[in-house]
Amino acid sequence: MARRRMIYEGKAKILYEGPEPGTLVQYFKDDTSAGDGAKKDVIEGKGVLNNRLSEYFMNGLNSIGVPTHFIRRLNMREQLVRSCEIIPLEVVVRNVAAGSISKRLGIDEGTPLPRPIIEFYYKDDALHDPMVSEEHITAFGWASQQDLDDIVALALRVNDFMSGTMLAVGIKLVDFKIEIGRIYDGDYMRLLVADEISPDSCRLWDIATGQKLDKDVFRRDLGSLSDAYSEVARRLGVLPPANAGKTGPKLVH
């Protein structure tokens, strides 16, 4: 489709003006980063995989009545999404101790948590996305108490869906991050899952071996990030054809 006016560029995606009012085109880049951008690289094909995987997860959530901003995939790297007001929070759901919670609380990585734990982080790169409490969120007006109740309910439904989906293909959903947006219809406001759901925003471990199939492969120099993401896509049945978008000599009979 014709390129439109760029609205926003982040570390891994670009948002463009959509073809209809109230829509955006979300473009997935091959760029990857860790440690607030301290470590960067370009992983060929990562944007294609994340576009397909996010489409798969968002469609699954829509099908069970969890509202998302996703409308449809446009091509290998772009999808059409609803324009929404993003609440400035990262919502993290943890099922197993890993990453920052292990460091903060001294819990061995891999320890199952007694129940899913939801954490909130204020979206601000300059401040390194600090963890915040519900008291901070309501006091500073980022979201109301009713919003928070609805966000927790949405996050737990996403967790149920994602956990079951990954378990069915032999993958443990350790934790994940989502963002929540607001859309307005006159005086009526509702919340929906926005941004993306992909191995960039989840921790995924092979149930049998513990092999990491997420961005920790890049963070911790554990091998090929492309291979890890491709394995997730392969198990879910959404891996694009190996030669998609490529042309070459044709066999003449």
Number of helices: 6
Top-tier CATH class of the largest domain: Alpha Beta
> Could you estimate the helical fraction of the residues in percent?
25-40%
Low-confidence runs: 243-253
Structural class: alpha+beta
Q: What is the element string, with H for helices and E for strands?
A: EEEEEHEEEEHEEHHEEEHH
How would you explain this protein's 3D organization?
The strands form 3 sheets. Strands 8, 9, 10, 11, 12, 13 and 14 form a 7-stranded antiparallel beta sheet that branches. Strands 1-2-3-7-6 form a 5-stranded antiparallel beta sheet, with helices on one face. It contains 6 helices and 14 strands. With 253 residues, the protein is α+β, with helices and mostly antiparallel strands. A hairpin with a 5-residue loop joins strand 2 and strand 3. The C terminus is likely disordered. It has 2 domains: 77 residues, Phosphorylase Kinase, domain 1, CATH 3.30.200.20; 141 residues, D-amino Acid Aminotransferase, Chain A, domain 1 (2-Layer Sandwich). Helix 1 packs parallel to helix 6.
Please name the defining characteristics of this protein.
seven-stranded antiparallel beta sheet; five-stranded antiparallel beta sheet; D-amino Acid Aminotransferase, Chain A, domain 1; 27% helix
